[in-house]
Design a protein that fits this description.
Length: 515
């Protein structure tokens, strides 16, 4: 196990800012790659490859079809420079559908020719075009509520647990960082023992500058389990509130939150988004370079639709508008139209919608003029109001167009759950029954279940915690969760399961595909 001293030494030079670059160059003869490698946004023929170094250097990527690299091709990637926080991404093409891909990355020093980093190897499988077994894993919420990397606990151990399932794809359901939550050096647990966090400068205050947001992503990559998982499992990611600030929306005043001096939430969000695209293997969209919502097809078995419920929402409020309009936006008209069209056009059996927030849970955001304000879709009993208009529109469309086999996955609420939405028990009835499955937290505080809103008939079939769960349980309590969706290529049956830190299956359900 890596020692605290080694971690602290690594953290001090991780993705160093230009101001300390000369010291880093003196201490290390060759470039380093402290964040490992990642692959993401995989298709049948392409994948994004990511890494980072500690100085201006050229990314080099060697690709092969076997782990011995007997026959390989070498690709010169982009330069990692100060403008990207010394990160680099390569959109790797020429892949064979469904086949394994082995790659290794290193960096050539631009200032000192001949110096290069030691290579780091990763692997994944290109998305299939024919039927084959498929496992998709998801979770969210990392380094939240004060729980950072504790070497004494073994770091972010759920990554290692998820890796045992050898998933074809990992969906990170948001709150990839907690930019608004500085980490204390120590927390006293209920039994009197001490949880000791690794703390870096970027995690010692709320993130406001671009470098501070970068530092939050760099912090998570200090964890050995996270780096190992990233090198083995390709990902798709979406963001949520803590990637910028708790419950943020347009109109949020950061100066009303502890620790903030920056007044513009729009500027904070822009810096956060830029850091996210720099530090994760996300492919830029030709029409909107930093667009988060997108879809990826994994052959005839499944297609994943990744949503963005942050970028286009209206300000949080009472959420009880009687008609849909600008003040009730959640996904927004353009994204909603894209999702409808994409679902209707999908040729895959299972349509997996990754939502950064649950649909039918009451998630509060204080009060506005004495009236409860809401962070999510739900707003309490009754027919659709506010943001629920968008959801009702989407669900009705799915029923009318006979879009079959839709499953939703999410995180956000810091406990695992299985929800069944049934028009028979709903106020709004114009939809087809569906499941929503909740994973997380991956490495953050755990809480008791939220209250369900009956508008769309949300029934809490299973909750991984109870009403008696004390708030903000530490990772050491074992209440860290993730989910898997496994598709049998012969029967096309989908097995949904929820798992805990010990890799114990705590709930599962077999779902037969409707033809």
């Amino acid at each position: 196990m890596i020692t605290r001293r080694a971690l602290l030494k690594s953290a001090s030079g991780l993705f160093a800012a230009p101001a300390v670059m000369s010291r880093v160059l003196q201490e290390s003869a060759a470039p380093t790659m402290p964040g490992g490698v990642q692959a993401g946004d995989v298709t049948a023929s392409r994948a994004m490859i990511w890494s980072a170094t500690d100085r201006p250097a050229r990314m080099m990527v060697e690709v092969a079809g076997d782990e011995r690299f007997l026959t390989s091709r070498l690709i010169e990637g982009p330069a990692a420079l100060e403008t990207t926080g010394f990160t680099a991404k390569l959109d790797l093409g020429g892949l064979a559908a469904g086949e394994p891909v082995f790659y290794r990355v290193w960096f050539d020093d631009l200032a000192r020719p001949g110096l290069r980093s030691a290579p780091i190897t990763g692997h994944f499988r290109a998305a299939p075009t024919a039927a084959r077994p498929l496992t998709i894993c998801w979770s969210g919420d990392v380094a939240g509520q004060g729980w950072g990397i504790n070497p004494d606990f073994g770091g972010m151990r759920l990554y290692e647990t998820m890796a045992r399932h050898h998933p074809d794809l990992f969906i990170h359901s948001g709150d990839m960082i907690y930019a608004d939550v500085p980490l204390p050096p120590e927390i006293t647990l209920d039994d009197g023992t001490i949880w000791r966090n690794l703390v870096t400068p970027a995690k010692s205050k709320v993130a406001e500058t671009l470098d501070e947001f970068r530092g939050n992503y760099a912090y998570n990559l200090l964890d050995t389990h996270a780096r190992a998982f990233n090198s083995q499992v390709p990902m798709v990611v979406q963001w949520d509130d803590h990637d910028v600030m708790n419950n943020w929306s347009p109109g949020t005043d950061p100066t009303l939150r502890p620790g903030y001096t920056e007044r513009s939430i729009a500027l904070l969000a822009a810096r956060a988004r830029r850091a996210m695209f720099e530090y994760l293997p996300i492919r830029s969209h030709p029409d909107e370079a930093e667009r988060v919502y997108r879809a990826y097809r994994y052959g005839p078995a499944a297609e994943v639709f990744v949503l963005d419920q942050r970028s286009y929402r209206a300000a949080n409020g009472a959420n009880r508008q009687e008609q849909a309009g600008p003040a009730s936006r959640m996904m927004g008209a353009v994204q909603l139209a894209w999702l409808k069209q994409s679902l209707a056009a999908s040729r895959s059996t299972w349509k997996i919608i990754a939502s950064d927030m649950p649909l039918g849970l009451l998630v509060g955001d204080g009060q506005v003029n004495g009236v409860p304000a809401w962070e999510g879709w739900a707003n309490g009993p009754g027919g659709p109001l506010g943001r629920e208009h968008e959801l009702a529109d989407l669900l009705s469309f799915i029923r009318r167009q006979r879009v079959k086999n839709v499953v939703w996955v999410t995180a956000d609420v810091h406990y695992s759950a299985a929800h069944f939405y049934d028009p028979k028990t709903a106020v709004f009835k114009d939809f087809t029954p569906f499941w929503e499955l909740v994973g997380g937290p991956l490495h953050a505080g755990t809480f008791a279940p939220s209250v369900a809103d009956p508008t769309f008939g949300c029934t809490q079939v299973f909750n991984g915690t109870s009403a008696a769960t004390k708030p903000n349980r530490p990772p050491s309590d074992g209440l860290q969760f993730f989910g898997t969706l496994t598709v049998d290529p012969r029967t096309l049956r989908l097995t949904a399961a929820l798992w805990n830190l010990k890799n114990e299956r705590i709930w599962s359900q077999d779902l037969d595909a409707e033809k």
